[in-house]
Protein 1
Amino acid sequence: MEISMADTEKKDVLILALESSCDETAAAVVKNGRTVLSNIISSQIDLHTLYGGVVPEIASRKHMEQINQVTEQALKEAGVTLDDITAVAVTYGPGLVGALLVGVAFAKSLAFAADKPLVGVHHIEGHISANYIENPDLEPPFTCLVVSGGHTNLVLVEDYGVYKIIGRTRDDAAGEAFDKVARVIGLGYPGGPKVDKLAKEGVADIELPKPHLDGMDFSFSGIKTAIINMHHKNPNVNRANLCMSFEKDVTEILLENTIKAAKSLNITKIALAGGVSANSFIRQEFLKLQNKGYKIYYPELNLCTDNAAMIASAGYYNYISGKISDMYLNAIPNLKI
Ligand code: KG4
Ligand code: ZN
């Protein structure tokens, strides 16, 4: 049978995805899970900076203001209309409930109006899937270190959409620790990128308490508290050295557990995901593992932090494996993976 051009084109799966779990309102169109046609992000960071962190009520209101135009822009930049879209994907948890609700309600109304399937996506699954966009050769199984503002997990990605958590933080998420240290030493919000920048001017000359946990769980509160106490006792302590010492120890903890996981699973493919994986020192130190036989993957910088392209990628794998949601899909702030 002859396959016409139209038939081949019909096979493309175009996912329109929406993300509004925290302080970015985002929409994207992605083809076949890996090719980004558009990726629009409207950040609220400037607004929340005034308060030193995300204010949930303000986040929800801003999402409501932005979501329509961000979606229109995503369709326009991708050069498609809602009719061309195969399915609408949306983050339905975990995250701030009011913020999530805006995306979920909007996605439901789009899917209903355009008569398209609706696909609910777990936010962390999205972060992991950002690696599929960046690395066309990446296939499961692999070990993924997810480090964001709300989560720090070591995940075995057994297959597309099949995950096993093998390590988690017992207290702060890595990004949370970065943000708190930055706030206390006066760098402002969001702290991660600011600590990253200042650390480059410092040396790691401060000894910090290392957590001693069995297994592959993480703890960052001891290191964070030690830095905060040090700064309170002596506000003139060199901030660049504080940042570098903090960053070095956090990286060591992340590396140690990730290597432990990869060894115990006998998997040499390691992916990084989440906002903290944008950290230049962490990326540099993980890359060194390539000399020891590991293959390291991470997303480009704007795919590390919250975006909708990653949600579209995860949504694609859900869609092709038949994981479709119905109109009862609801926001679940503490959704488990
Ligand atoms: O993944 P993400 O955008 O949102 C959540 O799902 O939480 O991650 C945001 C977190 C924040 O804590 C931010 O400070 C951190 O990622 N972050 C960084 C860097 N860029 C963002 N942390 C360290 N170094 C960076 N360059
Ligand atoms: Zn995130």
Protein 2
Amino acid sequence: MSHQDQHPAPNKLDVVVVGAGFAGLYQLHRLRGQGFDVRIIEAGDGVGGTWYWNRYPGARCDVRSVDYSYSFSPELEAEWEWSEKYAAQPEILRYLEHVADRFDLRRDIDLGIRLTAATFDETSGRWMIETDQGGRYDAQFLIMATGNLSSSRIPDIPGLDDFHGARLHTAQWPKEGIDLTGRRVGVIGTGSSGVQVIPELAAQADHVTVFQRTPAFALPANNRPLTGEEKRQAHERAEWRRNAARNSSFGIDLPAPQYKALEVDDAERRATYESYWDDGAATALMLSYRDLLYDREANETVAEFLRDKIKTIVDDPETARALTPHGFPFGAKRACVGTNYPAIYNEPHVDLVDVGADPIDRFTATGLRTESGTEHPLDAIVFATGFDAMTGALTSVDIRGREGVLLRDKWSVGPHNFLGVSTSGFPNMFIVTGPGSPSVLSNVVVSIEQHVDWITRCLTFLRDHRIATIDASAGSEADWVRQVNEAAARTLYPEGNSWYLGANVPGKPRVFMPYVRGLNHYSRICDEIAERGYDGFVLAPRPEGAASTKASSKKPA
Ligand code: N01
């Protein structure tokens, strides 16, 4: 083999996009439409991102399917029909596969390839990108469409390697599935994934032991097939609904709340809460009154409503008490939506172990032991323990910006960014729905479309104005971080030990990462910055005679 074969020339492109989920697929489609030469690299063997990996039984969206889907193509909207109110993982994955085929995206996606390093080269103003398969790419722009909940976490519990049983993580569920019939299954974690998977595991397993550290606020999904009339209306009103979503704070066409919870009487409040409970609509419940996310006393009214529900559902008072969340406001940790939860604890073969009171000590060969010395025999353990959220996918690879600075080092004090789409010192790199943007506090598909449209407009501007590099200025970044922090501090969000804050990862800096002032407000800021010629960014022109992007010589499709 020649030296050249061992180090084949890098694939030279205008743009490399990392990730083929909702964000990456749409980004490829938009940039290709503008004539850019783009490739996606994707670690999975298929497209779908989050919906490719999270195949655990019960995985389902809790935003209505007709809203949790792309709005950019009226034709796509017209031809796709959702079967249920909240779509399950297989249906969402089929949808994304359909999108990849319909827009002929697959020919520009390299599957089964994981990004390992990306280095900005000051001289060329381009990114040098390396992967675990040895392939290299050389691109003017790097777009991280890696998702906020993609870097899954298994906590460091002593003895895990001693455990002889099966080990599963909800976000790494085997593609071929796993039959847990007749087995004793343990589940660690009662966030959104735990709440969804536990009743499904109980339907198969001989015995389920749930290890709960913090009880969650959970609503019933009350999922059901969509009626013919609902499907017809979803199509007929699509344009109106989508516009309303884009102009809303959460990316869903909810009516803006008129009143504060403390302004109305108990009966009215209760009726409001009951209607959202019956609808399985956690976000709508959180937004039902103007003060629920701002005033602890107001929040207690909804928290108490949800606590009372547990007592009416769970037969054993001791179990009901252990399942009741206390000490943080409703909404400060993401509200869960599930089916048959917490009713599943009425089943004799489902046990709850309160590891808040009696912490996990270690795994043994045959199960899990808590600090009191109690042994829990298990044949399989399911980690529903979540993610190194928002930053994990970005800091786990070697991304080096100007002067060789590693992103992971820069962000060791918190994810400093400008608009949640860029970070100073990393020119020509964009993050889709990164920390500092509304992202996870919104219907994320709407946020993704907004970011991808903004990035596409930006890259087109740079090409048309012969700009070689764009970089957030240190001053605009500092100002944005201040605004994001100040806005969060006015809410109750920072009062929960949530992954929004990085509190679930030992050693992670505690910074409230999402932008809380709403998607509508945020989109306006982004648009104004673009209209002012990317105010807050430093733009460097291409030297005379320097090679242009391939795109500049192409006609947009
Ligand atoms: O993860 P989580 P997730 N010992 O971080 C516990 C989206 N999503 O995968 O709260 C014992 O929420 C941890 O306990 P504590 C959604 O945005 C959406 O469930 O840290 N327990 C917690 O109970 C969601 O918010 C859907 O005390 C440990 C759990 O593990 C996000 O993904 C479905 C532990 C982790 O909960 C993440 O949800 C699924 C330890 N050492 C996911 N370490 C929808 O329905 C962690 N835990 C749309």
